[in-house]
Design goal:
By secondary structure, this protein is mostly helical. It is built from seven helices and two strands. The protein binds zinc ion (ZN).
Length: 153
């Protein structure tokens, strides 16, 4: 974790305190997902739960547009770095599917985002999966998307 408390870590701290204080944590009702970007399926579920609590507490916006297409309502959120789960980003189902397909078809992904009015974080995403060590390093940066962008240099 970075030395300085960042906005996302402040939200996560509030969520942790709320959970310790008895805030209801929703149940994950699906099979354990595969690992992603160095985070295990169990860590992804834990992150999903914290994000759900944050949304219930209005610490994250509930209803916003997808930050990739900016057309459809965001009915989900994309978490790139699960050890910084509150850096999750609002996204629609269609764009979320494409984000997760990008490792298999990177050139298709890059062509797609070129046509989109996407937020800066979208362009920071790597087209290969991070190792656990890389993910943990990115998670220690104040701005995880800036850290991802730096990995492209
Ligand atoms: Zn979208």
């Amino acid at each position: 974790m970075p030395e300085k408390i960042t906005p996302d870590l402040l939200i996560e701290r509030k969520v942790d305190h709320a959970i310790e204080g008895g805030e209801r944590v929703p149940r994950w009702g699906w099979p354990t997902p595969r690992s992603y970007n160095g985070a295990t399926g169990e860590e992804r579920i834990a992150g999903w739960k914290k994000v759900a609590v944050a949304r219930n507490l209005d610490l994250l916006p509930r209803s916003v547009k997808c930050e990739v297409c900016r057309v459809r309502d965001a009915n989900g959120s994309h978490t790139e770095i699960y050890h910084r789960c509150m850096t999750t980003k609002p996204i629609c189902r269609s764009c979320h599917f494409k984000v997760h397909k990008r490792f298999q078809k990177p050139e298709r992904w890059l062509a797609f985002i070129e046509t989109m009015p996407a937020a800066d974080w979208v362009y920071a995403l790597l087209t290969r999966e991070l190792s656990r060590a890389e993910m943990l390093k990115v998670a220690r940066a104040p701005d995880v998307f800036a850290a991802l962008q730096m990995m492209k240099l």
